[in-house]
Amino acid sequence: MKRGYQESSSSGSFGPPHSKFKYNPEGDAQFLEDDNTKIFAKKVADHYSARTNQTLEEREASPIIHLKKLNNWIKSVLIQLYAKRGDAVLDLACGKGGDLIKWDKARIGYYVGIDIADGSTAAHDIMVMRTITNAAKKFSFPARLICGDCFEVRLDKVLAEDAPFDVCSCQFAMHYSWSTEARARRALANVSALLRPGGIFIGTMPDANVIVKKLREAEGLQFGNSVYWIRFDEEFENKDAVDCPEWIVPFHVFKTLAEEYGLELVFVKNSHVFVDEYMKKPEFVELMRRLGALGDGKEDQSTLSPDEWEVAYLYLAFVLRKVES
Ligand SMILES: C[S@@+](CC[C@H](N)C(=O)[O-])C[C@H]1O[C@@H](n2cnc3c(N)ncnc32)[C@H](O)[C@@H]1O
């Protein structure tokens, strides 16, 4: 396999990415001076680092177990639709590598996963990318898991030897890039620079349309149900009670910005629509049965509670394609 990499290097030459990538030095400088942004990124990193691995029993006992299974089904469907045998995959905000098995099923050829959380609450420099493991031995493809901030670091420098990728994925995390325009641009510039022309970017994130609609219907700045709540802050400084700050991404703005970086929309679907549409296909019905989000179709009739189903409605799935230059 041709793939190699440079260890932890933040130096080196930075060639202009392909296609319509627009380097934005002003935005970058602005970002680097923005302490709030760094604090939020650190807070997100600490939040996810502090999460411990659950046992199977703990996981099954979760009040949102069916929602988690549904989310796994959505990610699996996206992967099965767009990943091909031998593909090189870049997984932004990959978490603890929980999706590796899904990629393995798609028989991919190479995998790089990056996440800001490294499983430790110890302070770490989120500006630096470092490889935390070089191979996922259980899988049939070479894999790198890297700790770093993929919405700030110039990944085309760090991953110069690994690129181009056929598929880029960012699951349930793209909204973390939306804290400043510079970070949102960096995220999309990274994707654009690393995907080959015609390469695919798949993702899932909160559906701003639904969230804003719910906010309008709510009495105050807060709404939710038994398994989630969302509170909107008027002041970003006043974050003390918030475990993990999140941002909403108006999809039309995301789409327009993505186009600037040569990424054209293939589709965007709210999760409810996504489920409705792909549950018409027998292979994905079977996948849903295996994952168990809607029970196993036999004795196990357990399924998402109405409250879990409402949470699913808060998310969307998108697919973008890097334009051929
Ligand atoms: C909801 S989890 C999703 C994890 C994984 N993609 C999945 O679908 O299971 C969000 C992930 O985004 C990661 N994350 C948030 N901001 C990030 C950043 N700036 N750079 C890299 N990872 C980030 C978090 O550490 C966390 O693992």
Please, could you describe this protein's structure?
The protein is 35% helix and 19% strand. It starts with 24 loop residues before the first helix and ends with a strand. It has twelve helices and ten strands. It is globular and about 50 Å long. Mean pLDDT is 82; it is low at 4-27, 29-33, 120-130, 132-136 and 236-242. It has helices at residues 25-32, 35-49, 56-60, 65-82, 100-105, 155-158, 181-194, 208-217, 251-260, 271-278, 282-291, 306-312, and strands at 88-92, 110-115, 130-133, 143-147, 165-171, 195-206, 222-224, 229-231, 263-270, 315-322. The strands form two sheets. The chain has an eight-stranded mixed beta sheet, sandwiched between helices. It has a two-stranded antiparallel ribbon with strand order 7-8. Helix 1 (25-32) crosses helix 7 (181-194), helix 4 runs antiparallel to helix 11 and helix 4 (65-82) runs parallel beside helix 12. It is an alpha/beta fold and 325 residues long. It has one domain (25-49, 59-206, 252-322): 3-Layer(aba) Sandwich (Rossmann fold), CATH 3.40.50. S-adenosylmethionine (SAM) is lined by residues 41, 44-45, 48, 93-95, 98-99, 114-117, 149-151, 171-173, 176. It comes from Rehmannia glutinosa. It is an enzyme of class 2 (transferase). Residues 8-18 have a biased composition (Low complexity). Residues 1-28 are annotated as: Disordered. Keywords: Methyltransferase, mRNA capping, mRNA processing, Nucleus, RNA-binding, S-adenosyl-L-methionine, Transferase.
